[in-house]
Amino acid sequence: MAKRGRPTAYERAVRRERILDAAVATFAGRGFGAASLDEIAAAAGVTKRTLYTDVGDKAALFAAAVEREHDHIRAVATDAGSLIDVATEMVMVLHSDSAVALHRSVIAEARRFPDLAQTFYASGPLHSIDLLASYLPPGGDTPTRAAALYSVLLGEPHRRRLLDLTPAPTRSEAAAHASASLALLARS
Asked: Which residues bind DNA (predicted)?
């Protein structure tokens, strides 16, 4: 027998995760333009109305999926408080299968959906650069140094991920890459 009444906060959170997982998988498999809300709803085991109520339209689903990736980074930033921890988590998250899938999708469709590209950039890279800037020691042009660090944290390993040439890094590989990136920035 199905439960009646409103879902609890926990049940809503679990359902939202299912919805975002389904959205990422659908966007990765079909692209943003070809993905349909009906497909996403079916994959998440919810109604289309629930998608609209919980998250919004297709663009809002994409933005929420990008924001979820960056929520992981923000959580580490809040808990750890050190630049190396934040940089390591940034490598882990941004080189993950789901983040790479979203990145591929937005690159493929940026010309057709320029607002989607703008939302992706504001919710993703720009937010990460701002977060890194808040952890950098004072001195010099902090926004430029943060953008440089962000670029190095992604760099060639991220390009290989986008091209599906390498798997996502392990935590120790991400930490090594973050350490090397910070050392490179310190020398410049």
From this structure: 36-55
Q: Cα separations (Å) of 61 from 37, 148, 187?
A: 9, 29, 41
How far is C-alpha 3 from the geometric centre of its chain's CA atoms? 33
How many angstroms separate the CA atoms of 118 and 46, rounded? 28
Instruction: Taking each helix axis as running N to C, give the angle between helix 58-80 and helix 114-123, from 0 to 180 degrees, rounded to the nearest 10.
Output: 10
Domain that holds residue 110: 59-187
**b or e along 80-90 (b: 16 or more beta carbons within 10 Å of the residue's beta carbon)?**
eeebebbbbbb
Picking from 73, 98, 89, the residue whose alpha carbon sits closest to that of residue 21 is 98
Residue 11 located in a structural domain: no
Report the sign of the C-alpha dihedral through residues 48, 54, 60, 64, in that order: negative
Render pLDDT for 51-68 as a digit per residue (tens, 0 to 9): 999 999 999 998 898 888
CATH of the domain at 98: 1.10.357.10
CA gap 14, 89 in Å, rounded: 23
**Which pair of tokens denotes residue 119?**
């939302």
Q: Give me the residues of the chain with pLDDT under 70, please.
A: 1-3, 80, 188
Taking the complete model, does pTM exceed 0.85, yes or no?
Answer: no
Total count of domains within the chain: 1
Report how far residue 86's alpha carbon sits from residue 75's, in angstroms, rounded to the nearest whole number: 9
